[in-house]
Design goal:
Chains A, B: It comes from Lentzea atacamensis. Chains A, B: One of its GO terms (molecular function) is DNA binding. Chains A, B: Belongs to the LysR transcriptional regulatory family. Chains A, B: Keywords: DNA-binding, Transcription, Transcription regulation. The structure is a homodimer. Chain A is an alpha+beta fold and about 260 residues long. Chain A folds into three domains: about 80 residues, Winged helix-like DNA-binding domain superfamily/Winged helix DNA-binding domain (Arc Repressor Mutant, subunit A, Orthogonal Bundle), CATH 1.10.10.10; about 90 residues, D-Maltodextrin-Binding Protein, domain 2, CATH 3.40.190.10; about 70 residues, Periplasmic binding protein-like II (D-Maltodextrin-Binding Protein, domain 2), CATH 3.40.190. In chain A, helix 1 crosses helix 2 and helix 1 packs across helix 3. The relative contact order of chain A is 0.13. Chain A binds a DNA duplex (30 and 30 nucleotides) through helix 3.
DNA sequence: CCAGGTCCATACCTTCAGGGTATCGCGGAC
DNA sequence: GTCCGCGATACCCTGAAGGTATGGACCTGG
């Protein structure tokens, strides 16, 4: 009748480990219990979720589809748990460099007694914090995966090249992307990437290269030994306000209004 | 640890009724059980959700906030079930003009957690939807091909002639079929027929002629510029409830009961 | 002012799902 | 053939969810 979130959580664990024994260990339950629960889930759903064999466990197509629904459901449930009991609080997330104070102040002033918090996000968790309820709304830099989210664009801002003050491009009024050919770009992209803007800039200062950042970010993190130069022909960075699509609270609606006007 | 969706569903029921007894009734459980479950939920969440008094129950602010999260969570959970293919869903088909709401409401109220859907059919697909499983039962207008179907007659209703308000027959108390001789009948029958009642009526309004419809259909689609007149000597339209003969589910049996009583 | 009604809580019982341990059966690998 | 990894089965125990009966607080009409 009702879906049992415990079983769903067990299912996700097995789907991730593709091994009942290790999944059971991760869940801190005995393996036979896990086997039984998964079987019970399959019975309830009248669908086979795994192909079991003594040499491995794999997801069936139905299992794969369930997994896609199960994860967001679990995060939504934990978001609910996180939010409940927390005193009347409204939390605004923001990416580094974005100035949220005016909007936050305005919301707070209109609702005395409401605790308005802010949470600085990173490139990696800017979407996650919305889904798991750590923030009610968040200022994000597009593009982000928009599944389960709603958003309104707020403004665009140009990107700049950040280089050492001694760099050949330092002092220029502006550059074109072609001027950067041959420069090593310091990016957050995957494997050996940098987790924060500070680290990126540190790297540029130490070892040269060029970091490409939205203007406000570059200004926010400006340092003596680095300068930034506008790049004329690169697509601007879009800043948007995003929130979970299943949440429709008056406060969120009001903040969206405020953010668009500020 | 895990949120219990059953308790959440109970919570929403109480929040909607603001009365433990009636909520329990709607959920088909005993009132003390509901009280205990809500209390357990409050303990688990460490938050008081309701203010109880012998003269009424109200949501606390925390309860109100939980309600905002609880509804979408339940929706997402049932969406998951539906997509996995287990959706506990019962779908009732109906021909235009027939009012199914009371019966549907009654079934839904007797089975909390059951998703009861309705599907409007047309003259062409009213049987097809039964066979292909789009509906579990359907209100049909006889005659229909009954192969593979079982049905119970529900009621008869007179047919009326729908004519422009300016027509010579408009305003009459009733007419006989013979009065219609010479009139062009606008019918849905095959090739160049009209696919919907709306189209038929549009045609009558534009180009004259007469449409013969069951009374309820004529009422449902009534327009300012058209009037309907009962036809005394034409066989009445029979409305029946039909279902696939190879399907014998308790829900179908129950709905048949309900439909006959309503 | 008391009788009855409404509403939620408490007490107590029964059932069953979920957790645990011990052990089996099946394949693949050495 | 033997061993090992992996999931399934068998059996027990506990606790949570369901039920009925009843209590206690509060309102309301006579």
């Amino acid at each position: 009748m009702d879906l049992d979130l415990r079983k769903v959580r067990y299912f996700v664990a097995v789907a991730e480990h593709l091994n009942f024994g290790r999944a059971a260990e991760a869940l801190h339950i005995a393996q036979p219990v896990l086997s039984r629960q998964i079987r019970a889930l399959e019975t309830e759903l009248k669908v086979q979720l795994f192909d079991r064999s003594s040499k491995g466990t794999t997801l069936t197509p139905a299992g794969l589809r369930l997994l896609e629904d199960a994860r967001p459901l679990l995060t939504q449930a934990s978001a609910l748990l996180r939010r409940v009991g927390v005193a009347d609080t409204f939390t605004v997330g923001f990416m580094p460099g974005l100035i949220v104070t005016p909007a936050v102040r305005l919301l707070a002033s209109r609702h005395p007694g409401l605790q308005v918090d802010v949470l600085r996000t990173t490139w990696e968790d800017q979407v996650e914090v919305i889904h798991d309820g750590r923030v009610d709304v968040s200022y994000v830099r597009l593009p982000v995966p928009l599944d389960g989210l709603r958003h309104v664009p707020l403004f665009d801002e140009p990107r700049v090249a950040v280089v050492p003050a001694t760099h050949r491009l330092a002092g220029k009024e502006s550059v074109l992307e072609v001027d950067l050919t041959g420069e090593r770009r310091v990016q957050h992209t995957d494997p050996p990437g940098f987790r924060s803007v500070e680290e990126k800039l540190e790297h540029v200062a130490m070892h040269g290269g060029v970091a490409i950042l939205p203007l406000s970010t570059a200004i926010f993190y400006s340092r003596e030994d680095l300068v930034h130069v506008p790049i004329e022909d690169i697509a601007p960075n879009e800043v948007a306000l995003a929130w979970a699509e299943h949440r429709h609270t008056p406060l969120i609606a009001e903040f969206i209004e405020i953010a668009q006007q500020v």
